[in-house]
Design a protein that fits this description.
alpha+beta; 6-stranded antiparallel β-sheet; 34% helix
Amino acid sequence: MDPEMLRNYCLSKPGATEDLPFGPDTLVFKVCDKLFALVDIEKFESVNLKCDPELAIELREQYKEVKPGYHMNKRHWNTVDLQSGLPDSLIFEWIDHSYDRVVEGLPASKRRQIPD
């Protein structure tokens, strides 16, 4: 996985936007102003993704490349090592899950604003 591949995938999600609210090195992907992915674009070593708390624990137990979210709520966020050789398809699946978690948590009025 390379930075442009991750960026393009995140931005392909309906209503997704990108921003640099934490400085020039941390690229943040949002839907309706809610974070669903964060990545250090300078180092590109890992990505933070939102996750169901029970699934987060399972993934951490199953994959050594998945850790509690760095600088995030460790119950709801995982940090995934992007340099470890995990299949891109698995990372994309986890990005989908993160995006879906955020969308599910939005008020109905915000969800209606997301293009189909």
